Amino acid sequence: MSTSSEPTRSDDDKMTLVLVAALFLAFGGAAALWDKVLTKLLELHVILPAGPQITLALPKAAGAGLDGRRLLLAGALVLLLLAAAAGERRRRARVRARGGDGARAGRR
Hints:
Oligomer: single chain
Distance between the termini: 23 Å
Shape: elongated
Number of helices: 3
Largest sheet: 2 strands, antiparallel
Structural class: mainly alpha
Radius of gyration: 21 Å
Strand order of the largest sheet: 1-2
């Protein structure tokens, strides 16, 4: 049995660190590679080149951006992610209220 005085991190702390690192890499990496990202998004038809159909132009994209349909899909994706995060938060609150850590429900 070890009697280490080092603090231990909970699963929530670890998940927060992973998310912060992922966000840092995503936004920092996207900023550093913005031209390459824009080129790839244009190739994949995720965004459209500059034109009259553009509803939302992306910054530093020479007028390229999203039309109405793509903007609607992007908004729906954001709402879906927010709903999933809220659901997970409620699930964790219920598990804590029952006095468990999630392992009893078959989760780790």
